[in-house]
Amino acid sequence: MAKILIIDDSPADIRFMTEALRSTGHAVVSITESSKAEATMEAERPDLTLLDVVMPERNGYETLRALKKLPAYASTKVVFVSSKGSDTDVKWGLRQGAVDYLVKPYTPEQVVTLVSRHV
What we know:
Sig_transdc_resp-reg_receiver, Bact_response_regulator, five-stranded parallel β-sheet, Response regulator, about 20% strand, phosphoprotein, about 120 residues
C-alpha cells in the first residue's frame, strides 16, 4: 500500500482525512507546519501528498514550489486540498504542479476516491 503525507494546519482536517483513509490500508503521516514539509518529505518519501493551500507560515503553493526542489520529490504526486475552490484557484493549483485539487468541504468517499486515483 501507499504512504500518504497530509500537510494541513488544521488538526481536525488531518483527523478527518486520516479516518477516511484508515480502511484503505495506506500508511498516513501528517504534519501541521508547512515549514517542516521538506524534512518530512526527505524522511518519509510518501507516494502522495495531500496539501492544504491556506496555511499561516507558508501557503500550499509556496510549499509545493519548495518541495519541487527536492530530489525526493521527483516521484511524489501532490493534491491540493483547500477551501479555495473557485475555477481560478483550481486552475492555479494545477498550474503549480498539483495532480488534482479537492475542495473543502469534502466527504470521506471523495478522499478515498481521490487517493485511489493517484496511488
